[in-house]
Amino acid sequence: MRPGMEEPGMDTEAETVATEAPPRPVNCLEAEAAAGRRPRTPAPHEAACSRPPAQPPGDPAAQASVSNGEDAGGGAGRELVDLKIIWNKTKHDVKFPLDSTGSELKQKIHSITGLPPAMQKVMYKGLVPEDKTLREIKVTSGAKIMVVGSTINDVLAVNTPKDAAQQDAKAEENKKEPLCRQKQHRKVLDKGKPEDVMPSVKGAQERLPTVPLSGMYNKSGGKVRLTFKLEQDQLWIGTKERTEKLPMGSIKNVVSEPIEGHEDYHMMAFQLGPTEASYYWVYWVPTQYVDAIKDTVLGKWQYF
């Protein structure tokens, strides 16, 4: 090839390279810097040229900036209600959709406490139906939802040596004289069954009724009634003279024993202090409510 002559195709390749390399966007200030001028403060009418281009609609970065203020229970755009979930003497403040069902509430409780839905008893003015919404059962803001139940670990612990020792201690206790034969209780039981005593169902277990338990005697032989205020987490013990309002958490223990000769009724004691001397005794409690009373007051399952 002679000097000064270009190789065929070089112009074409150069044009191709120039076409494939897109020009880099240059704003006003960059253009001045490239021309060798000293950078200066842009005038107001020039400021717009230095702004980055607006993100087009649908751009992922723009979508990522949308608020994620949706409620943890999936309640975005739904009416929420403030609830106090009470389980095992612990309270949890929760916002929950008012149109969610009892079944969905159980799932929420599971996420908070670890308590499986199948092992939950959820109470608000009685047992909460799984197929009804909180709106339908008239749950209001600030309502207290009582939960009774035990975790899987609690259930497995039933078969531990510690539990076996407790069962042995209970068996030893059963060899002692029945409570109903002791003199302090005999003077009340000898009065006989109260005329207005509530009907009993031997061998059955029922939920607490919506009305107070009445028609029973206390240790002094006076009439007594028990009212369970689940919304206030209180037990009201009422007599003719006065009504004592006890927080459920202040009751240390609940014991009961069938009345000899009337096994469809129990005598029951609520431990209000650190020793047995603080027992408040109630006589002629219908047997079908005994376990429900223990569950409600102690806040845990009773193993039969």
Automatic annotation (TrEMBL):
Domain Ubiquitin-like: start-end pairs: 81-148
GO molecular function: cadherin binding; RNA binding
Gene3D superfamilies: Phosphatidylinositol 3-kinase Catalytic Subunit, Chain A, domain 1
Protein name: Ubiquitin domain-containing protein UBFD1
Biased composition (Basic and acidic residues): 169-180, 187-196
UniProt gene name: UBFD1
Region (Disordered): 1-75, 166-199
Annotated source species: Pan paniscus (Pygmy chimpanzee)
Alphabetized CDD domains for the sequence: Ubl_UBFD1
